[in-house]
UniProtKB/TrEMBL annotation:
InterPro entries: AB_hydrolase_fold (IPR029058). The keyword Ligase does not apply. This is Integral membrane protein. The keyword Ubl conjugation does not apply. Residues 784-807 are annotated as: Disordered.
Amino acid sequence: MPPAPQAEAAQSSGAALELLVHGVGGTTPQEMLGDPRTTRITGDATAAVYRRTEDVGAEQHPERHRDGPVAEAYCWSNLTSGNGARALWLLLLPFMVVNLAHWMRPTADASHRAVRLYGLLVRMVALSLTVLLTAAACEVALDLVAWQCAGTPECAGQRSWLGFLSTRQDGWFSQPGRRLAVAALVPAALVGLLWYLSNRTWSAYESQRPLTWGEPDSAASGVDADEATDAVTRSGARQVRQVRPALGRPGFWYGRRLVARLRAAHTAAGFLTVAATVCGSAVRYDRSSDSPVPAVAGILLEAGLVLCGLVAVAVVCHRGRSERRLDNRIDRAVTTFLPGAALTLLLCAAAYAGWSRPGWVSTGTLPGEAAFRTLVLGQGLLVVVLAVVALSLYRRAPEPRTILHGLGGPAVAMLACALGGVMTAGVAQRVADWLDGPGTPGMGAGADIAGPPVLLSWQASVIPVLLLLLLPPVIWLAVRTVRRARLLGPAIEAEYEEKHPEPGRTRRIARTRAAAALTDSAPGILGLLSAATLLLGTGAVAGSWLTGEVPGLATDGAGPFVESLAETAQSTGSWLTGFGVILFVTWGRRAYRDVSARRTIGILWDVGTFWPRAAHPFAPPCYAERAVPDLSSRMCAWTATTRGRLVISGHSQGSVLAAAAVWQLPDPARRRVALLTYGSPIERLYGRWFPAYFGRVPLEGLQQSVHCWRNLWRATDPIGGPVRIDEGRGHEVDRGPLKDPLVYGRTTEHPLPEPVLGHSDYQADPAFAVERAALLERLGPVVPQQAGTGAEDRGGAAQGSAGRSSG
């Protein structure tokens, strides 16, 4: 028989813990706990759990904490911030964005073939971006520098560092093939650097293997990432079958096998791109002239490149991610043989190109126009097919709040391709302008070199047009925000029941609320940007294909106004693309050094790196693969040891980490845990943009599985919002909108004007302590214990002190 209530209460230690998780801005444990003296309980210098020094060992003396729970702070900011060198991760922005598209698929039956096709298409777009980046490096190093400038005496004569490659000196490296072989070191080193960074960041951030807490191993490995998993729980003799959410599967936050396979395939694709660029011109020369090189050598080399490329594509298409259990296997045949074979082919290509061909002279440009055109057309076709698949998935299980009716993933994939094109065109245009000195590459007789492929110039030319197209909706949003702020004024004064309102104070509050609502307009801007990019990109391909000249020359005879407009668009776009690349690095360094800048743009970066690398292995590392197992392990260990009550308290991005950690808990631990979120983007951003993982159904499942959940939000918060779930049983998950500021004017309790807090300092609101105490009251004993096995803790806690987290 279960123990009597009096005996159960006597067994309870009364232990209660609040585990604080900060947001994207990062903060110190001293600020979170409100005490300059803190002690690290567990963890390392990268991520750790801290307590006030006086609270160490508080479980042995629960009578000292009758007025509130013991506070712990989990600090994970070092996972995403640090020295300014990490700003270089922004150069991997296209890879991060396409990885987001993988997780943005609409809600649908995960066993459907369209779900697998969706993931396959995203992985193919990701592979094309790797090839595009490598091709851009080849365009700069091999075409512009080694082929054009070094092969032109006027260009090479102005740069002494090119002397050993120049045709003027007639040295050993003066032959075109040997110049290409030497220049291939640059793009090959870039591919090697990407492989190294991917492998190193995996070891540093994501290789922490999550602990298992007695969960059943329900399936063999090799199951696709999107397949549903069922968990069976037993209550007496009755079995209850539940669908385990994706983020709660044991292997979701441990994608070692998939990342290793994708890293091998993308590395091989990069090396093969360099090899094809090096040997392509030599093969064509050998076929069109009396070359001393045997023709069979070029045929064998091309056959090897094609075969290895097909293997790399097959590896990308293969399903390699397992989530039903921790899959610690590594496919050595793929991860070792494939990159090694590609590197061997690259060395063979360099040796083949370096074969002596005395009559070979470099003229014009390398044949990269067709390659870039094929890449751009392939990316556009993949995005269009991806959109068709996404629409079909959305129609099977429509969710009204899903952005763009399920087209968010294709729109983001299109944005990733556009970013890759901008970076490619920008670097190529700027290097060509620098090499050509006072001339303009490709613009007539005054130019020393022919310049980059015409398509890149057309892509640069459409950027000013794209900005002009975005100008009207941006102006419309600004006007609408101003009008909304004016309309909110009377309602704000009525809300505070202010008898003597101040117009300036009312305007500040109204403007903050109206500006916070702009976040909900982001999907429309994204849709317009992606559609315009697709149309303008198609126009750029058509223009370069039909004319074969840069925009300024292609409009000859169309009138002086049109010619001037085309030249202006081409030059402006060229400078904008180059400026954009510099701006990426500048913003990145400022974001990692300046806290205010990080809070401004950090949410976008941390949303992108929250998700595991499932589509692109060279994307920045996923911090959640370390943070989520940390949190779930801490909660499991504490509840198993003390059998106490635990409130995990997450702010901003910390609330998403907290929810993901709760999903990972086994049922006995989850029933002792309450979830408190505030300033949370879990539904407003994640639920709308990632409906398959944070949509209505997963969030309702989270609410039903956790003991109790409370969410605080403000109308002035541009990031957080309600979760829109009715818990039932007389309790609602949402409480809000909270008043911000707390009071309108000066009062006895608040003699000085209260600030408009927006997204920060939720703990400053009295409602925070009230709701935390209510959650602890509701925890209590959840499941009656059998005799001799102990009891759940009973009791409540009033409001207590807690630190402030920023995000």
